[in-house]
Amino acid sequence: MNYTYYITDVFTNQAFNGAQVAVFPDAGDLSKLQMSLIARELNLTETVFLSKINNENNHFRMKIFSPSEEIDTAGHPIIAAAYTLGFCNKLTINNDGHTPVILHQNSGEIKASITFTDNQPSFIQYSRTVSPVVDYFTPTEAELSTFLGIDAAYIDNKKYSTRLVSCGVPYLVVPTFYYKTLREAKFDFSAWGQSIAPQTAAQEILLVSPKTPSQDSDFAVRLVGPNIGFNDDPPAGTAIPTLAAFLCSFDHMQKGTYTFAVQRGDEKTRRSIINLEMDHKGEDTLNIRIGGEAVMVSQGQFSFS
Fold this sequence. Notes:
Blueprint: E1 2-10, E2 19-24, H1 32-42, E3 46-52, E4 59-65, E5 70-71, H2 76-87, E6 98-105, E7 108-117, E8 120-130, E9 133-135, H3 141-148, E10 163-166, E11 170-175, H4 179-184, H5 189-194, E12 204-209, E13 219-224, H6 240-248, E14 256-264, E15 272-280, E16 286-292, E17 294-303
Parallel strand pairs: 2-3, 4-6, 11-12, 13-14
Antiparallel strand pairs: 1-2, 1-17, 3-4, 4-5, 6-7, 7-8, 8-16, 9-10, 10-11, 12-13, 14-15, 15-16
């Protein structure tokens, strides 16, 4: 039997930018082993397998695999899945231009909204409610400087400060004054191991800069860490709730609804623009909405006898 897949570039409106995600819109008969083998063969950061839930309008079961394992939840695949379903005419489209789709991940239901322009999906946004945990036990600026390969003077300790933030997965969030510092950081595994950083349980560092070289973004982010390749600049969609919680943890952030555009990467590393909306109410939970565009770039098939 043949199974068609589509590769989309996510959080971008230009092909060959953003994050590549493969989506199988009709994967109902594939076994978990077959899904794992396909994800390994495609070797993309994430591969998505969708199957329609009977008698439920615009409800789909969603399985996500990396080349090495199944993933319970992730951000980029939501945008890719919703975009592909709209592109392939798999949805009942509302006349008001905004069509809901419910994606049933291993971690629970995710509701996304698709905006259509000229009968094509043009923008996807999904909602999450998170319960952030913020810890102030972090490495010293001298330690951060050593294992990030940056000057300690460029680590922001005025408007922001380094914090350990978790919305389910802990990240060490390190703010920098300048975009150039974020881009030039080089992770040093040996220095990391000699610092107190491993005691924080965070395996990834989210570098954040409020300065970007582009007019279309308010923040720049980059992920580095012991499990990320030295020259890699991986997708950061899953870390965006952590960024929202980090920003809301500071007293100078007044309560209200905020909208930010977040840049990941640059022209050499598949630049992405992630739209973040957050309702800062000073409560234990935080409502966020993450959105972006996507581009269809290729189509293929896998055959199983």
